[in-house]
Amino acid sequence: MGLLQRAIEAEGIPTIGITLLKEVTQKVKPPRALYLRYPFGHPMREAFQVDQQRTILLDALKAVETITEPGTIREPGYRWRRHRFRLRP
What we know:
By secondary structure, this protein is an alpha/beta fold. The protein has one domain (2-74). Helix content is 37%, strand content 11%. The protein has three helices and three strands. It has helices at residues 2-10, 22-28, 50-66; strands at 17-19, 32-35, 72-74. A three-stranded parallel beta sheet has the order 1-2-3, sandwiched between helices. α3 (50-66) links the parallel β2 and β3 (72-74). The mean pLDDT is 88.
């Protein structure tokens, strides 16, 4: 994740990784990442749950805009099957 992100960022394109393993991401040190406490195979949450997936995508895009310190890992705090998502306007 980190090496590819750094290469893309070197070309002037901001990136963000969505990670399920915070410890590994901390060692890889990508430019920025969004950490979700979800099981493997579900980085965007449950299949066909558009509201959930849109919320995660919007959080990731907002993090691209707001993270200024390289290596920052943002954790939105969602928990698998506990958080209720609502459609954002």
